[in-house]
Structure formats: structure tokens, C-alpha cells
Design goal:
By secondary structure, this protein is mostly beta strands. The chain has a domain at 3-40. It is built from no helices and three strands. It has strands at 3-8, 14-18, 37-40. Strands 2-1-3 form a three-stranded antiparallel β-sheet, with no helix packed on it. A hairpin with a 5-residue loop joins strand 1 (3-8) and strand 2 (14-18). It starts with a strand and ends in a 31-residue tail after the last strand. The structure holds zinc ion (ZN).
Length: 71
């Protein structure tokens, strides 16, 4: 279910709200009933380049002096 996170700009309260697709309803803060809320992105869309293994021959050990960057 498309549950989005919101943050109230009036009182700073964080809350989750189920928002149906195709229905643009005004989200109100459950705490102060303010309409000045901001939708937060909880699950950002990361590119495929993120998450690859670190041991791909890169210079991760600072003790190796013969480790040159680039090339
Ligand atoms: Zn509020």
C-alpha cells in the first residue's frame, strides 16, 4: 500500500498517511489539523551503481604505499 510520510510544518510532527492513487486529498496534520504539511520521501530511488562490492581492486588499505590512485 502506498503509505507516505509527512511532516507538519506547523508543529513539526511526523506522521504516516495512506494516499490512494488518483485521489488528491488534502493531508492534514493529525495533531494540530494544519494543512501545511510536507510529503517526505522514505524510500529514495538509488541508482544501480550503489551497492557493489568494495573489494574491486581499489585502494582501501592506507598501509600500502605502492597504491596509486588512477590508472
Ligand atoms: Zn501539526
Amino acid at each position: 500500500m502506498p503509505i507516505f510520510e509527512f511532516s507538519c510544518k506547523a508543529c513539526g510532527k511526523f506522521f504516516e498517511k495512506l494516499q490512494l492513487v488518483g485521489r488528491e486529498e488534502q493531508i492534514k496534520c493529525p495533531d494540530c489539523s494544519s494543512e501545511n504539511v510536507e510529503k517526505k520521501i522514505s524510500a529514495p530511488f538509488l541508482p544501480s551503481s550503489v551497492g557493489k562490492p568494495a573489494d574491486s581492486g581499489s585502494c582501501s588499505t592506507p598501509q600500502k604505499s605502492d597504491c596509486q590512485t588512477g590508472g
